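Entry 14. Structure prediction run on the chain below.
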Amino acid sequence: MFFFDRAFRSFFLGGSFFAVISMFIWWLSLSGVGMLNFSGVVPADWHAHEMVFGYALATVTGFLLTAVMNWTGDNSASGTKLMVLFILWVLARFGYLVDAPLELIAILDIGFTLGLFLHFFIPVYRAKLWKQGGLFTKFLLLFIANTVYYAGVFGWLKNGIDLGIIAGLFLVLAINLTMMRRLIPFFTVKALGLGAEKNSKLLDGLSLVGFLGLMIAAMFFPYHWATAVIAFPLAMVNAVRWKLWYHHRIWKVVLLWPLHVSYGFMTLGMGLYGFVGLGMLSESLAIHALAAGGIGLLCSSIMARISLGHTNRNVFNPPKMVLWVFIILVVTSVIRVILPIILPEFYNLWIQLSQWSWTIGFLILSILYWSILTQQAEQKESAIRL
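Output returned:
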C-alpha cells in the first residue's frame, strides 16, 4: 500500500486532477453547454467551495500530513487511516457531481475536515510539538468554517455560505503564508547558495495582525472603507517582505520562481481588497488574485517540488515540461485578474480563457507527475528530501 504510505501521493494527485475536472465542469456550467444540479447548491457557491475545500485543501493536506509525520516520527497519516481520509475527500467531491443527497455530502465533507484536524493534532499533541499550535488551530477553524458553510446551505445560518467560503479561503491562505514564511527564504538560500535567510520578526508580526484584520473585514464588511485601511498597509508590509526574500537569480531555478510569483499575487490580492473597500473594484478580482494567482501557483509548485524530494528524486532536475505548467498558470492569473481591470468590456472572454488555461495547466501537471506519484522510486542516500 505504498500509495498511501504518505499523504502527498494521494492528495497531490487527487487535488491536481480535481483542479482539472472541477474547472472544466465550471466552464460547462457558465457557458451553458452542460448544467449539473450540484445537489441543489448554487453553481457559483459550488465552484467557490470546491476550489477551497476541494482543490486547495487537498494540496495542503498532502504537504502537512506528510510533514507532521517527519516532524513527530508518528505514523499518524499512513496506510488504512490515510486511505479512509482520502476516500472521504473523494466521495464528498464526487457527491456534488452525481447529485447525491446534500446531507450525505455534508457528513462526508465535514468528516474529512474533522479527520484532517485530528490526523494533524494528535501526533503534535503526543510529541508536545506546541510550536505547531498555529497550524492545528487553523485546521480546527477550517472544520468549523466548513460546518458553517453547510449550515448556510441548509438554511440554518444566514450568510453561512459566504462566511464559510471566505473564512475557508483565508484560513487556507493563512496556512499557505505560514508555509511560505518557512519555505521561500529556505529554498531561495539553498537553491542559490546564498548566506543566511533574510527574515524580520517585525514584518512577520505586522503581516500576521494585518492578515487577521483583513480576514475579518472580508467576512463581514468587504465594501466598507475600513477594509481599505487594513488592506493597503498589509499589502505594503508583504511587498517589503517579498523584496527581502527576492534575489535576481531565482528566475534560473524552475521550482523556485513560482513560489515568489505566487507570493506576489497574494500581495496583489491584499492590495486589491483596498480598492474593494473603496468601492472601486469587485471583490471577485481580489479573491481570484489570492486564489488563482496565489494558492493555485503556490500549491502547484509545492506539489512539483515535494513530490520529487519525497520520492528520492532530484528537486533541481524536474520534468522539463513543468516550466510550461507554471507559465500557463501565471498567464491564467493575469487573464483572470489583470485583464478584467484593464478591459472590463471583455470580462466574459477573460473568464473563459482563464478557465481553459487553468484546466490545461493542471492537466499537464497531472500527467507529468502521474508516474512520479504512483510508482515506487529507487532509494538513494543522496536524494534531496524537502
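The chain is about 75% helix and 0% strand.
Filed with the rest of this week's runs.
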